[in-house]
Specification:
The structure is a single chain. With 287 residues, the protein is α+β, with helices and mostly antiparallel strands. It is built from five helices and 15 strands. It has one domain: Creatinase/methionine aminopeptidase superfamily (Creatine Amidinohydrolase, Alpha-Beta Complex). The strands form five sheets. Strands 1, 2, 4 and 5 form a four-stranded antiparallel sheet that branches. A three-stranded antiparallel sheet has the order 3-12-11, with no helix packed on it. The chain is globular and about 60 Å long. Belongs to the peptidase M24A family. Methionine aminopeptidase type 1 subfamily. It holds the Pfam family Peptidase_M24.
Amino acid sequence: MFGKKKRWHCLPGQEPTELDKKVMYWENKGKLVPTRDMIRTAEQIEGIRMAGKLTTQCLDAVAAKIAECKNTQDIDDIVVKFCKDNNCNPTCLNYEGFPKAVCTSINEVVCHGIPKEEDVLEPGDIVNVDITIDKDGFYGDASRMFIIGGKTTPEKEELVRVTKECLEIGMAAAKPYGFVGDIGHAIQKYAEKHHYGVVRDLCGHGVGLAMHEEPEVCHFGHRGEGMLLVPGMTFTIEPMINMGTWKVYLDADDPYGWEIITGDEKPSAQWEHTLLMTENGVEILAE
């Protein structure tokens, strides 16, 4: 009788380490665990850290100029120039047909908004800018919210603030040898306390050696579910929080098939960090 195929394997010829024993304990309990190659080497961590640093700096460059931007194409131009000046690549450009270097999502656009000259930025708009950078085969991924003109409605301001708090609460819930579901449970509980919808159709993800890797990091769920979190894993937390329903739809008017809209067309917000799991909790690599 064949048992379930094991995901975790000890290194050949070596006695199991304490890490091995902890991971195998949970795998033997029937929990989903990472594969060994999801645990980054010291060299890989340094490469991902550099890509994350560039991602953060690129968002800083957007933050310094966004008040002067007339449209979302201007934001794309900033990202393209930054990457050219810093010898790195904007990963979104041409990724599965995505035509631009960055995602710019305004108001009711949940994510994957495509920069264009006709998307004029108006005072009071809330805009998510989502950037992934590839440096020498390592990846950083982060997004921030911006309020155009520095002021918007109290309702939008609260949405932006609570969404950032959801990210912070999710990071606090991410513990070594805890589970991805712990993150989603904490975020969902906090968001729904404020009567917001947590998007279920999109999630955070592993990142570092590619833009999208295991595990999926859902922003809703139950404690103890999902993949075991092990020191050395790198992943994003990126809650997408809607002012109304959690449901979303694909914009039929987008010829590229990317832009996601809230189901009731009320505003949405998102914040994202790339994180490294350590023995003491998460370290921010890109923000």
